[in-house]
Request: fold
Amino acid sequence: MKKPIPRSPTTTRTPASAGRKAPAPVKSPTSRNGSAPAPEVSGMDDIRDAVARLKRERIIDVAVDLFYSNGFSNTTLEAVADRMNVTKPFIYSHFRSKSELLEEICSRGIRASLEAINRIIAIGGTPTEQARALARDFMNAVLQNQKHIGIYSREEKNLQPADAEAIGNMRREFDHKLTALLEQGNQTGEFDIADPKMASLAIGGIASWSYVWFRSTGRLSRDQVADQMAQLVMSMIQAKPLGKAPAKKRVR
Reply:
């Protein structure tokens, strides 16, 4: 008789992963004080903001053309929307009313002028250097916002009282800062101005009135007008830069 072949004991295979330890959970980074870090700002937010600004500027550009040509009272938001080939709700998504749109347009010129004088004061320099730079940048700010200033001149009466007051405050702030610069030049001996306050108002009036007569197709370019304005202002305030000693008399 044949002997039965002995069978090997049955073994159960264990999966390869059974003997491995489970990975430790990954901890989220924390700041030094133990709090969770602030989430990173998505670049999509920046893109959306940029697109919104472009849309807003497009509305302003079209409204400026219509307000300047037809007047504020004769222009509706529907007309602005039609010119842009959009619906009126698109306009309302950026401006709550036609009055708010008017305020934004009317404030552009003085806001640009105020930014110019603040920038020049921050840079520093002698009163003469600051006055020359301001005269040039102030004129450029006016000419870059020529239609905006024209609309403000004609439509100031249609501004809401609070908006008119806010724009008036910016104008007064500009005048005060320009007056202070002229007074500083008087104190250092660089300027010879009998009445700095009146000189400040005169400079502001000369530059602001250029919205009436300047033409981009005219004899002088915008930069040339700004350069000549700087020369006129320096003559008006009788600027005498420091550092030039008076000529000595010859002894015979």
Q: What stands out?
A: Confidence is low (pLDDT under 50) at residues 8-23, 25-33, 245-252. The CA atoms of residues 193 and 237 lie 6 Å apart. The first helix runs from residue 43 to 70. The chain is about 60% helix and 0% strand.
